[in-house]
Write a structure and sequence with these properties.
By secondary structure, this protein is mainly beta. It is about 10% helix and about 65% strand. The protein is built from 3 helices and 12 strands. Strands 1, 2, 3, 4, 5, 6, 7, 8, 9, 10, 11 and 12 form a 12-stranded antiparallel β-sheet that branches.
Length: about 260
């Protein structure tokens, strides 16, 4: 209780999609987006190893989108510059403002999405805890541990072809860390569309806590669908790029009393 984590993230995505009917070009789309966030998370209550109550202060939360040849437009999300208290009670997340006031549905949805891990142990840290790993050694991480690293962006996706090899030991975010060379695929089938994200890069984990302190990965994105329509066979083929950068710095709050 009282641990403070400053989480900074930037996710970039671009996707071009071509639609064909019986093999002939029908239409296309070209879109891109960049999500940026910086939030300070203070642990207020624990149940064993699981966090059940936090204070979440958003210093930045914004999304920049572009469609076709239009100029990019940036929207500041309604939580930006605000603080919230989030409590897990009877399996449900309760979100209130800094002074305990009610919040809008939009705010509650955004905050709730950022706090889906409440009540759950840190799978990645648990997997590494107690393990002795040599440089060059490859670890068979569980799907849950790997998926946890990518937050809401990986929700509902299946992990495939995971490879994480200890590349070096280095200082990241002022902590001694093991740096893992990482490759994996995330696959999702929804509404007849198969989305596949293939990523490679590095993940750094604290030697002391085993928690991930930085994620730097990039790769490709494909989205495909085909099916029959009254007018013929429709096919959708999308190709794009994706980039994810996340970092966590840790500290201690002097304002939070010890949990009884």
């Amino acid at each position: 209780v009282g641990d403070v984590k400053t989480e900074v993230a930037q996710h970039e995505m671009s996707l071009k999609v071509d639609f064909t009917l019986d093999g002939k070009p029908l239409r296309n789309s070209d879109q891109s987006s960049t999500d940026k966030s910086k939030q300070v998370r203070t642990i207020l209550e624990l149940d064993g190893d699981a966090v059940t109550k936090v204070k979440l202060a958003y210093e930045q939360k914004e999304k920049t989108s572009r469609s076709g040849e239009a100029e990019p437009a940036t929207a500041t999300l309604p939580v930006s510059g605000k603080s919230y208290t989030v409590t897990l009670k009877d399996g449900k997340l309760i979100v209130v403002g800094a002074a305990g006031e009610d919040v809008s549905k939009d705010e509650a949805a955004i905050v709730g999405n950022d706090c889906k891990s409440l009540g759950k142990p840190e799978r990645f840290a648990q997997f590494l805890d107690g393990k002795s790993v040599k440089v060059g050694e490859k670890l068979a991480f569980t799907d849950e541990a790997v998926t946890e690293l990518f937050g809401s962006g990986s929700e509902g996706m299946r992990v495939e072809n995971v490879s994480m090899t200890l590349k070096s030991v280095a200082t990241e975010q002022e902590q001694k860390c093991g740096v893992f060379e990482t490759q994996l695929s995330l696959v999702k089938l929804q509404g007849g569309v198969e989305t596949r994200v293939t990523l490679s890069g590095e993940v750094a984990a604290s030697v002391e806590t085993c928690a991930a302190v930085s994620v730097r990965v990039a790769g490709t994105l494909t989205a495909n669908r085909s099916g029959d329509t009254p007018n013929g066979k429709m096919e959708m083929k999308g190709n794009g790029e994706i980039k994810m950068i996340q970092s966590v710095t840790s500290g201690k709050s002097a304002d939070v009393p010890a949990q009884k």
